[in-house]
Amino acid sequence: xxxxxxxxxxxxxxxxxxxxxxxxxxxxxxxxxxxxxxxxxxxxxxxxxxxxxxxxxxxxxxxxxxxxxxxxxxxxxxxxxxxxxxxxxxxxxxxxxxxxxxxxxxxxxxxxxxxxxxxxxxxxxxxxxxxxxxxxxxxxxxxxxxxxxxxxxxxxxxxxxxxxxxxxxxxxxxxxxxxxxxxxxxxxxxxxxxxxxxxxxxxxxxxxxxxxxxxxxxxxxxxxxxxxxxxxxxxxxxxxxxxxxxxxxxxxxxxxxxxxxxxxxxxxxxxxxxxxxxxxxxxxxxxxxxxxxxxxxxxxxxxxxxxxxxxxxxxxxxxxxxxxxxxxxxxx
Length: 332
Description:
By secondary structure, this protein is of the alpha/beta class. It has two domains: about 5-175, Thiolase/Chalcone synthase (Peroxisomal Thiolase, Chain A, domain 1, 3-Layer(aba) Sandwich); about 180-330, Thiolase/Chalcone synthase (Peroxisomal Thiolase, Chain A, domain 1, 3-Layer(aba) Sandwich), CATH 3.40.47. The chain has helices at about 20-30, 30-40, 55-70, 90-100, 115-130, 155-160, 210-215, 225-245, 265-275, 285, 295-305, and strands spanning about 5-15, 15-20, 45, 75-80, 105-110, 135-145, 165-175, 180-185, 195, 220, 255-260, 315-320, 325-330. Strand 12 and strand 13 (about 325-330) form a beta hairpin. Helix 3 (about 55-70) crosses helix 4 (about 90-100). The radius of gyration is 19 Å and the shape is globular. The two termini are about 20 Å apart.
């Protein structure tokens, strides 16, 4: 068994359409200043009509390949995390593989929403460590804007969510003190209805109906206090588990990288960890919340920016719909 796997390279893509709070204010009947206070977001990226999740993923994947000096045919497996797939079926992993020119290469979709990239990264880690595949492409892409309603009724989601994609190539790492040091994944489906899109779905036995649209069942349900409280609790549990499992202290970690859904909790998390706010990286204010794609986009930014040195440790952690949550510790 290979001792470790590692992230060889990353890539990210943000759609070119940038939408500020002023543009949304009249549509959702909420002042731009209030949107910024409520969400912490000043602007976000939206895909243009015709841009699907696999299109965004393709561009992020190409950038990851370019950064590694690899070509698409080096990829042995594709793991695609998304909850805004191109189609109800087939999976977008298969669609992406075809766009990369891959034939016969296994491809699968992961449907764990905000924690989907971490679930995918954990799968890739196991594939590589077991010797099943040598190079695994893990990508997360979301086109949240395609399912949003830009109206007062849909305003909470329309001002919060955004679009984007991030990708990582995972390969073997022979050094035992480098690479992916550990991962932990969890879920609690008792809270499924607190953060969800109800329709269309097989639980309703039929296609999307006019009544579903009138009642807003196609729009994201974003719970309030329950999501906040569980998010804080599970994030703290994840960080404690990550540090204990990997035998680390918070001071040993260069950066903590949460999904953007946890951005409002950053001051609380920093206080609990006893670290400066700046060591928890988030860029939600300028990018919005591309849900499952937020961690790989942030990771790509961190890796490409100056300041990350050999031996630095990052803790990636996420919480979201399901509820599902988890963590991955990476040492460079």
